[in-house]
## 1
Amino acid sequence: MNKTLIQELIELLGPDSISTSEIERIQCAHDMAPVPKLLGMVYKSKPDAVVRPKSPEQLQQLVKFAAQNAVPLTPRGRATTMMGGAYPVLGGISVDMTARRGIIELNESGLTVKVAAGTNYETVLKFLSRRGLTLYSYPSSAPSATVAGWLANSAMGMGKAGLGIGSSRFGYSADSVVDLGVALASGEYLESVLTSGHKVESFLGSDGILGIIDTVTLKVRSLPLRQEPFSFNFKDIKELCAAVKECISLKPFFVVFEDENLLGFKKKAGLHIPQTQLNRGNHPAQNIVTIVLEGDEASFETDVNKLRQIIASHGGQELARQIAWAEWEDRFRAMNHKKAGPNLLGGEFTAPLGQLTEVIRLVNKMGKAKNLTIGIHGTLGVKEIVLMPQVLSDQRKKFRYMTMMSLVKELNDLSVKVGGAPYGAGLFNAFYAKQVHGAKYNELVKLKKQLDPHNIMNPGKGICHWTRFRVPLPKFAYGFAMGGLGLFVKHG
Amino acid sequence: MLQERLGTIQDEIYTCAQCAYCTATCPVAELKGWESYGPRGRMHLLKLVLENDYKANKELAERFYVCTTCSRCEKVCQTDLPLIEIWEDVRSWLVEDNLGPLEPHRVIDASVAEFHNAFREAAANRDAWAGDIELSRKGEVAFFVGCTSSYKMQKLASDSVRILQAIGDQVAVLGEEEWCCGSPLIRTGQRRQIKGLVEHNVEALKNTGAEIVVASCTGCFKTIRDDYPHWYEKKLPFKVMHISQYLAQQIKNGRLTFTQPINQKVTYHDPCHLGLHAGEYEDPRAVLQAIPGLELVEMHNIREESRCCGAGGGVKAGLPDIALGLARTRAEEAEETGASILASCCPFCKTNLSQAIDNEKINLIQKDITELVVEAMGI
C-alpha cells in the first residue's frame, strides 16, 4: 500500500482504528508457531497497516475500500493457531477483529446468543454460566480464542469447522451456529447470512477466504445437572485406545489422553505427574485418559458405571477424583510443558477413530526410526480423533529446528495415509486442502471465485499456497523442500 | 544494553507460547486494544529485540510502562512464566538504557533520594497525620504508615492506629525513620536506591522491638513482604501483615468486636498487591462480613479474576489517563452490584477509584476497610 492509500484509509476510518506503526504491524506478522526468518523471503507476512474495525459500518467501509483498491485483507482474531492462516502472505491490511467484542443479544426462550466476532469464548461461557446456560462446544484455547476465529479456521473443513471441548457429545463447532453477520468482498454486509440466500456453513471452516465474520449467533443449552471428569491410567497405550473407542457409546462430553512420552515432557518441565497407587506405593501414571461425562442424575450414574466397566475390561486403573478434577481444570493448558523445549514441534491432524491404535503405532514407529521421543496428546472428536504428536525442540538451534520442521509434513502425510487429514489448512497445510475439506473442496473453490473474484479475502491461503510474489508454491516443491530438510534430521 | 540483558531471560522468552491468554485477560490490552499493549505483544517484542529484529526505543518502553503489574497475566499463563518479574526486570534494563522510566517516575526517584518519601514532603512531618494520637517508637506491633498515608491520605493512617490502639496493641511507628518502602521505584525499574532503603527500613523496624509489622498500604505490604527478603539478602526479622489480615485475626480471637451496625450494601475491590500478588482474598471479606448490618455483594470479577483499579505499577503517576480509564471500568462494575459503598484496602485503589466515581458521577462512595471498621467500632 502506498502512502496515498494509507492516508485515504485513515481519513475514511479515523486514526483510532488504524495503525501503520512498525510496533503494531510486526505483531500481526505471526501466530503461535515460530517461523524461521528465512521464510520471510517467501511471504510478506507483515501487513502494511493494521485496522481494528469497531462497528459493522466500519468493517463494511474497510472492505469496500480494499475491494476498490485491490488491497489484500487478512482477518485476525487472537491468532491462536499454528498454520499461518491469520497473518498475510501478500502484505496489505491485517483486520484485527478483537475490537468487535461483546454479547449482542441473548434469546433465552429461543436458546441462542448473538455475539460480536472478536469476543473470546471464555467471556461467552462466563456470561452464559451466570444465567444457567452454556455452549455446546468450545475450543481448548477458550480463554483467548475469539468466536469467529475458531469458527472460521478450516480445521475439519468447510461446513464443519472446529473440534473442541463438547464435540464428542455435540458435534462440530459449525453444528451449533445458527446465523452469521458477514462482510463480503464485494463490500456488501450481510447482517443475516441465513436470510441472505447464502449458506451459513460456507463461511464456517473456510479460513476467512470468502468473507469476514462480524457477528455469530450460537445455540446455547442449559447447564447440565451433572458434569464430572474421571481419569484413568493404562500401562498399555493400545488398551487405552481400545477403551476410548468403546466409550464413544456413552457420548462423553470430552475425552483427552496423553501418552507416557508426553507425561515425560511434563516431568522434564517440572510439572507434577499424577500418581497411581499400585502395590501399596505411589507410581507415576503412564498413559492417562480423562473422560468427562454429563447428564441428569439417573443417566449420569448409569454412564459412570458403564464407563468404569469399560475401563476395567481394558485393564485401566481409575485415578483419584482430585486428579481427574485437576486434569479437567487444566483442559485449557495443553502447552503447559512447553518450557521443556522450549519449543514444541509436531503435527495436529485427525484420523478415523477406528484407526486410533494404528495411527499411534505409526507415530511411535516414526519416532523409533528417527530416534526421536514423540509425545502424543489426543482428543476425541465426533467420529474421529485429533492427535497432536510433538517433539521437544529449540528454535535457537536454527538449522536443527529447520530440519525438524520436516516432521510436520511427515505427520500430515501419515494422517492422510490412515484416512484422516491435517487439522486445518491455513497457509502451511493448504497443500492438503482437498483432504481438509473433503467433498466440500470443489464447492469452496467455486464460492471463492464467485464471492471474491479479485481475491482480496485472505488471499494465497486455504485452497492454495501463495508466496509473496503471487506465485503459488506447488505441492511437489513443498514435498521436495521438506524431504530435503528431513534428510538432516540426525538420529538422536 | 537491553538486548544483552534479555539473554538472561531467553528461556522464558522462547517458552512463551504466544497463546494470548494473558492478553485476553489484561485490562490495559482491553482498554488500548492494540496488540503491542498486551503481555503477549510485549513478549513478542522482547523476542524480536533479542533476535535483533527490532531496536528498543521509547515506543517500546511505553508499552512496558503502561502495565499496572496487576499480575492477571501471570495467573493465566499456561507455561507458568514469572511475568511480573519479567516486566519489572525489563523496566530496570530500560532505565539502564535511558529509555525509561517515564518523567513523573524520575521525579519520585529524586524525591525519595532527597526527602525519603515520594512527595517531596519534609521528613520531619512524617507524624503530622497523628494529630492528638499518642505515638510510640517501641511496641509489639509496628505500623508502617507509608508515604501516601503519611502525607496525602492521613485519615487512613490515623484510623489504622486508632483501631490498633483501641484493641489494646502497643503500636510503634517510625516517624522520621520511616523511609519510602521503595515500591514506586521497584515497580518502575529504578533500583539504584533500593538496597539502601530496604536496609534502613528493616533496621528501623527491628529497633521497634515488634515481631509483627502491619501496613495499611498494600504496596508497602507487598514490597516489604515479597521484595525485601531479596534485597535484604536474608529472612526478615519480623512477620509482615496487611491490616486486613491482622484485623481478621483479631476478630477471630475475640479482641476486635463491633458495636455499631452499618446497614449498607458494600462491594469489595481486591487490591492487586493483596489479592493477586499475595493470594489474600478472604481476610478483608471476613472483616467486612463481621460488621453487623453490612451486606457484602460481590462484583463479577473478584479474587483471582479481580480487575485492577488501574493505579499500580507507576501507571497512576506516569499515564494517568490509562489509570482513570481502568478505574472507570472497575467502578462501573461495582455500581452494577447495587452497592452504596465500594470498599477496598489500598490508598492507591482509593485515590483512583474515587476519582473515577467523581468523574463519572457514579452513585457510590469509596471507603477503606479501616474507615468502616472505625465506624463499626464506634471510636
## 2
Amino acid sequence: MDVSGILASQASKYKSIAVEKDVPLEVDVGSLSATDLNPIEEEGYKIDLEEGLQNTARDGVQALISALFQLPTQSTADGPLAMLPPPKTLLPRAKPLPKPKPPTKWERFAAAKGIQKTKKDKKVWDEVRQEWVNRWGMRGKNKEKEEQWITEVRANADIDHDPVKAARDERKARVAKNEKQQVQNLGRAAGGTRSDRKQEIVKTLASSRISTASMGKFDKKLDGEKKLRGVKRKFDPTEEPGESEKKKSLALISKIDREGPSKQSRHNHAGKSDDVLNVRKAVRIASKGKGGVALGRELGGGNRPNVRGGRGGNSKRGGKR
Amino acid sequence: MLRTVKPRNARSKRALVAREPKEVEDTRTAVFVKGTHTGEILNNAMKELMSLKRPNAIAFSKKNAVRPFEDPSPLEFWAGKNDASLFVVGQSTKKRPDGLTFVRTFDGKVLDMCELGVDKFVSMAEFKTPKSTPGHRPLMHFASELFDTHPRFIQVKSLLLDFFGSEVIDGIHLAGIEHVISVSLAPTPSTLNNATQAIPGLSDESSDDTKNLPKIHIRTYTLRLLSSGTRVPRVELAPMGPSLDLSLRRHRPPDPEMWKAAMRRPKLKKQDIEKGLGKKKKNLDTDEMGDLRGRVHVGKQDLDKLQTRKMKGLKRGPVESGSSDEEDEEGQKKSKRPKAS
C-alpha cells in the first residue's frame, strides 16, 4: 500500500517547523535566547527591512521553541513546567559573592578543641508539671527558681536576702554577659586592632564632652575626671649641647646594630599571634593564680607532702558542702 | 573600625537583609533617568522600554544633570539608594541627539557603559496588535555574526541579555511565553570584515570609529503557536512594538579586574552537582525511581584473540619452512609450558 500520497497531503496542511541555515543557530535554552550567526543578506535588507527582520526572527524563535518543547517537563499545580538547564551564556553578577560569616570567639575555640555543636531542643520536660516547657522565654525553665512559691534559704543568710531577686539578678547577669560577648564578636568581625578601638572611644568621648551649648563648661564633672586638653605640639630645641646630641645619635646607631627584635616588638608580636588559647590566662587558671613557676614545682618537683596538702584542702571544701 | 548601620526594627532589618549579596541573585532592577534635555522620541522610547522591563523598573521623572561618561558618581549613588544595578540614561544634545546610555553596575560601581543613538522609534500604540502581559519573561533573539566576533557588539548583546533576561530560572510554563525581543544588525560592511580579519591590531581603532559599525534593529514580536502535526508547534510572529533603530556611540569597556570579580561563580552544592550542574560525574545518573544507576565501561574487546571452537582443520601446521616461524613456535611453546605444568 502506498501511503506517500496521504502523507504528502497531510504534510501540506501544516507549514514546516524545520529551520535550515548555513550556520546552525546557537540556542541557549537556559537563558531563553537564540543567536543567529549567519551574516545578514544585503539585498533582502535593502528591499524590505521589516519583512526580512521578521523572517530571521521567526526562524530563530522557531528553533528556540523547538528546543523548549523537547525539554523534560514537571507537572505543578499551575500546569506543566519545562525544566530549563543552567544558562550557557554567563552574565556578570550585580553584587559580589556573599562572604562567609566570620567565626565567633567560641566557634574558633570549639574548632581548635574539636568540640562538636549539639543542637538543644527549645522544649524541655518538666518532671513536676509533667509537661514540655520552654527552655527559656514565657514560663521558661530558666525562671524556675524565681517562680517557685517557696525557696530554701541558708540559716546564716542576711536578713534582707531575697532569693527570688538573687536568682533573677543571676539570670539577668548571664543575659548581659552574652550580649556583651555578641557586641565583642561583632567588633572583632568588623576588623581593627584593640588599640584602634580604644583610640576611637577616646576620640568619641572627647568630642561628646564638648558637644553641649556651653562647650562642656557647665557640665557635671565626675570624680577624678580629668580636664580636657588639646594636643600640644612639642619640638626639640634647635640648639642642643654636644653631649646630648651625641647620646641620641649613639642610641640610634645601637638600635640599628642590635640583633633581633626588641622586647617591646616581641611582646607586640606575641599579642598579635592568632592563638585562640590565651596562654597566660590558661596558666593563671591552672595554677589557681600562683603562676607558672609554682605550678611547675607542684607537678614536676614531686614534693609529696605538698601534694597531699592540696588534696586535704579539697576534701575540706567537700566537707563544707 | 567600620561603622555599621544597625537596623532599629524588624522591618528595616528584613529590608537590609534583602539587599545583601546573595548566591543566586534576583532580577536586576533598572532605573530610567532623564538627562538635562530629552526630546519626545527619547521620552517615549524610555517609557516603552520601561513597560517591557516592568515590574523591575524605576522611573526618575525629573530631569537630572548627569553625564555618565564624564562623572558616573551620581549613578553609583542611585545604585546604592535604589538597590538597582542597571541604568538607562536619556540625554539629547546637539552633538549627540537622542542618546540612550545603558549602564551596568557591579557592587555599586559602574561596570560598563554603552551609548546608543535612537535613529528611529516606532511606538507600541502604532501597531494595532495584541500586546504581551507585563512581567512575562521574553525570549531573546540575536542575529548577526558580529555578536560573536566584534567586541562592541558582544558588549551590546551581554547588556541587552542582562537587561531583559538576567534572572536564572529553572522552569518555565510554556504557555506563558508570549513575546520575543529580536536584536539584529544591518549587513556587515566590507571594511569591518577586512579590518578585523587582516589587521588584528587595528581592531581597537575600528571599534572606536562608530561610523563604520552597522545599525542595531530592536524589534518586539508576539508569538502565535500553531499546530504543526507534531509535538513542536509552528511559530508565527506579529509585531508588537516598540521597535528601535539604534546606532552605536561612545562606550566604556569593563575594567578587567572588576569583570573578573563580577564573573566569579559560587561553589556548586553537592546536590546540584548530582543533578548535573557544574562538573558532571560520568557514567552516573538517577533513574525515574530516584535510584542511582551506574554504567560500567568495559574496554574494547579484541576479537582477534577470541578463542573459538577448536578444530583439527583450523590448527596451524607444524611443518613450515623459514627460521622465523620456528622461533615463533618456540616462543609459543615456552609460554605454554608453565600453563601445562
## 3
Amino acid sequence: MKAFSRLSIALFYSLFCISVSWADGFPVDKVYHPYVLANERELEWRLTSRQNDDGNVLAQRFAYGHSVSEYLTIEGYIVGERDDTGDFGLQAYEIEARWMLTDQGELWADWGMLFELEKQHREDIYEFTSGLLFEKEFTQTSLTINALLVYEWGKDIQDEFETEFRLKYRYRYLPALQPSIEIYTGEDFVGIGPGFMGVHRYEGQKQLKWELAFIAGLNGDAKDHTLRFALEYEF
Amino acid sequence: MNKPVNKTFGCAALFFGLFCQSILAAVPEYHIQLKDHLFFPSRIIIPANQKVKLVIDNQDNTPEEFDSFSLNREKVIFAHRKAKIFIGPLKPGEYGFFGEYNPNTARGTVIVEHSKKESPDAN
C-alpha cells in the first residue's frame, strides 16, 4: 500500500498543478521516464536549437547524475545559451531530483515525480519545477507523459506560475532504434514531431543512450522549428 | 459545479478506480534463485495475458542487474537481497533476459503460454 499512498499524493498534487495556470516558456526538452536504476551514474549532454522568425536560440546542458537509492536520483546541470550578441556562455545552474513512485509494471501504469531548481547566472531569477511523470506500456509501445508546474520568481522577473505538458509515444523496435512521436504544449506553443532514441550497451552498467527529435511549432508562426539532441553515458 | 471541475473529479475518480484495481488484484509469484551468476530455473513458464511477479533471490556476494529489452525491464538486485519484477500481461512467446554484470552466464528465458503451466522447479 506504500505505492498507493505515494501515488495518491502525487496524483492530487498534479491535478492541482494542472488546474492552476499555463506556460509562456519554451517547453521543448527531454520527456522524462518515471524510472530510477540503483547504482547508476550518468553524464549527459543536451542540445536544443530553435529557429523561428526571430532567429535562432541555441541551448546546451551538461549534467552529472547519481542515483542515491533504488527510487531516487539526483542530477546537477550547467546550462549554456547563445545570447543576443551571438556569444555562447553560461546561462544557469540547476539541480534535479527524480523520484520513482511505483515499481515498473506494478500498477496499471508507472508513476514518478520530478523536482528541479534553477538559478539564472548573474540574474536574480529562480525557477522551481515539479510535476508528475507517467508511463504506460502497450505491448511493444510505450506512452510517456510529463505534466509539470513551473514557478518563477526573483527581482529580475515577474513572479508567475506556468505549466508544461510533454508526451512521447515510442515504438520499442530495437534497442538501437526506437522511433517515436513527441508533443509539447505551453502557452502560445504547441509542437509536434518525430523523435528517435537508441541504446548502445557496453559491459556492465555502461551504456550510451541517444535521443533526437525535430519539433514543428503549430502555433501560427510562419516558421518555428526545434531540433533537440541528447547523449547520456550511464556507468 | 462547472464543467472543468466536473472533468477534474471525473479524471480523479477514473484514476482512483484503476489504482484500486491494480493494487487489489492478486499477482502470481514465480521465484528464481541467482547463484554463482546463474539463474535457476533459467526457463520460467507463465500464463499469457496475465501479470506476474518474478521474485529473484540473489545469493551471490555481488550485485546483478536484471535486463531484458523484450520484457522492457531493468532492475538492480543487490547481493543477498531479493528483488521483485512485475512483467506482463504478455502475448505467447519467448522473452529472454540476462544479468548485465555476467551476461555470458546469467541468462534466462520467460516462456509465455496460453494454458497456465508452472515450471516444475519454480517455487
## 4
Amino acid sequence: MSRTVVVTGLGATTPLGGDVASTWEALLAARSGIHLLNDPKFADLPVRIAATAKVDPEDVLEKHEVRRMDRSQQLALIAAREAWKDAGAPDLDQERLGVAVATGVGGAISLMEQYDILRERGASRVSPMTVPMLMPNGPAAIVGLEFGAMAGVHTPVSACASGAEAIGYGAEMIRTGRADVVIAGGTEGCIHPLTLAAFAAMRALSTREDNPAAASRPFDRDRDGFVMAEGAAILVLESEDHAKARGAHIYATYGGQGLAADAHHIAQPEPEGRGVMLAMNRALADSGLSTKDIFHVNAHATSTPAGDVAEAKAIRKVLGADADHAPVTAVKGVAGHLLGGAGSLAAIAAILAIQNRIVPPVGNLENLADGVDVDVVMGKPRELPAGDIAAMSNSFGFGGHDVVLAFRSN
Amino acid sequence: MSQDILAGLAQIVNEVAGIPAESVQMDKSFVDDLDVDSLSMVEVVMACEDKFGVTIPDTEVKNLNTVADAVNYIAAHK
C-alpha cells in the first residue's frame, strides 16, 4: 500500500517572522534576521552572532504554557498551531492523526537552567518539568498532546537534517496507511552561551562581528561559517484522498525522500558529496521523478567553507545539464541555521517556491565562490515556469546524515 | 490572613496551571476541580514554599486535597 501524500498546512516561527507569511516575505526580500546578541551573558564569547526568533514565543503563549515548555517546544507548538489552522483544522479520528516533529539538540537550555538551579538552590528547587522539557521527543509530544494524535508520535534525530527526516518519516506514516494526517517538521531553541561556545570551538560559526546581518552568506566567496538560529517550521501532511474528500487547499504534493549517510567524518562534509548524491538520486527514485522534472533546489548551504561547494558540485553531478533549469537557493543567508528546524524551513521554502513560481535569492551572496557551477539565485527573486514542476530540498547534519525531500507542484 | 494566603495561592495556581485565579476557591479540589496534575502540584508546592516561607514535606502534600487544606496548612506553619 502506498498512498499519495499532499501538503495542506504550513506553520513557522523564525528569525524572519512569527508566521509563514512574514517569513516568506522576508526571504523574498532577502531581509536578514541575524544580529549581535547584546545580553551580557554572551559578552565573553568568541562569537555573539545569532538569529533569534523574530517574535518571542513568550509574547505569544500563555504564561503557564511558557513555564511548562522548553523554548524548542514553545516554538514548535506555535508553528504547529499555525499549520493546523492553515490546514483548516481537519476533523478526523484521532487514531488516524500522527506527529513527527524533530529537534537537533533538544531541551539544552532547560537542562542548563535547571543545573544552575541545582547548584545555586539545591535539588528541592529543580522543576518537576525538567525531564519533559529536556527530552528530545518533548516537542513532538507537546504537539501530539495539543491535537490528540494517537497514530504515533515520533522524533527522528539527525542533527541539522532532523526537520527534513521528520517530514519524510511523517509522509511514510501516511504512505503505509498508519495515519491519514501527520503534523511534521522540526524545531530548535537552544541559543545559549554554552551552545554558541561549543559550535565556536568547532570553528563552525561565522565571526563577522562588524556586520552580523551579513555574516551568513551561502555560496559566497567570503563565507566563513554558519550562524546559529532558532525557530520552528511545521507542515500538515495528508493523504491525497483525505485532503480531497474534505476539499482542503493543497500547497504541493509530497514526492518522496532520499536518505543516505556520508560514512566519512563526524562533522566534516565528504568533499566529493557522495552521500549527498546518493540521497538526491534516491529522492528522485522514491518520487518517480527524473532530473528533467526538477526546476528548483533548496540547498542545505550553511555558509561554511567546505560544505557549500561540495553540495553545489553534487547538485551539478546529479542533475547534469538539467541543473541549468533548476535555480538554487538557500534560506540560511537571512534566516541563519535553525539546526533541527532547518530542514523543515527549507521544505516550506521549496513548497512555496513551486507554488508561487518564485525562488527567493540567497541572502548576502555577492561573489559566487569558485567551484559553484549551478544556477544560484543572486540579488533578486527568480521566476519559475508554469506547468508541472518539482523541487528538491537538501538537508545534512553533523554525523554525516543526508536527507533530501522532493515536492511536486499542484 | 487566610484571605492573603488564598490570594497568593490562587496567583501561583494561575501561573503554574493557567487556571483563572478566581476559580481557586477554598472548597475546590486541586485534582478534581482545578485539573492540577501531580507535576503541577509539585510546582505549586515549591512556589508556596518560596512565597510563604514554609516547608511542605512530600508526606504532607498527599493530604492537601482541597485549596482549604493548603491554605490551612500554610497558615498553621508560617
